[in-house]
Design a protein that fits this description.
Blueprint lengths: L1 E4 L1 H4 L2 H12 L4 E3 L2 H14 L1 H17 L23 H9 L4 E3 L8 H6 L3 E3 L1 H11 L1 H17 L6 H7 L3 H8 L1
Parallel strand pairs: 1-2, 1-3, 3-4
Helix pairs in contact: 2-8, 3-4, 7-8, 7-10, 9-10
Length: 179
């Protein structure tokens, strides 16, 4: 399974770590474009110079860790479609260029189901995506969640698994792993 990770799921550190750990474990194949990474970097810059610097380093590490993940977004594949937010067209173009079936995004309204279906794509919230992955490979997802929680705690952010998933806006996943 190939999935494009939108900037809004790469920007939050814990969520990015969960998603990329699962990609590294081979549960799915993560994709993005230079433009998606630039969008993440611009979002961090709006917070301040420290956040921008950290994001730059994180992006560099992500590029080293997943050199095959970067896909072109040349503007050809979906150019004639009217997107609710034309600035998100490049995400769809990345998915089409990378032969992905999914776009993992927190902004579902920018990727209407009818339009996505016509392109052979599906936009999915990270909560639903991770639930799907949990059903496919529960041990890998649980391991990724635990590793992310452990890293957060080591960085001084002690929190329970439930608190971490709440912070990541993953309520359905939190309920599924609680039981």
């Amino acid at each position: 399974m190939r999935a494009v990770l939108d900037a809004n799921v790469l920007f939050p550190t814990i969520l990015r770590e969960i998603l990329t750990d699962l990609a590294q474990a081979g549960v799915y194949h993560a994709l993005w474009s230079d433009r998606i990474l630039e969008e993440w970097h611009r979002a961090a810059a709006r917070i301040g110079p420290d956040a921008e610097s950290v994001a730059g380093a994180q992006i560099a590490l992500l590029r080293l860790r997943f050199p095959q993940a970067v896909q072109p977004d040349d503007g050809q594949a979906a150019i004639d479609l009217d997107f609710p937010d034309p600035a998100d067209r490049h995400v769809v173009e990345t998915a089409l260029a990378g032969d992905a079936s999914l776009i993992v995004t927190a902004n579902l309204r920018d990727f209407p189901q009818r339009m996505m279906t016509g392109l052979g794509l599906r936009a999915i919230h990270p909560d639903a995506f991770l639930l799907d992955l949990l059903a496919r490979d529960r041990p890998a997802v649980l391991s990724s969640l635990q590793a992310a929680r452990d890293r957060a705690e080591a960085a001084g952010g002690a929190m329970s698994m439930a608190e971490m998933l709440k912070r990541c806006r993953l309520p359905r996943l939190a309920r599924a792993v609680k039981g």
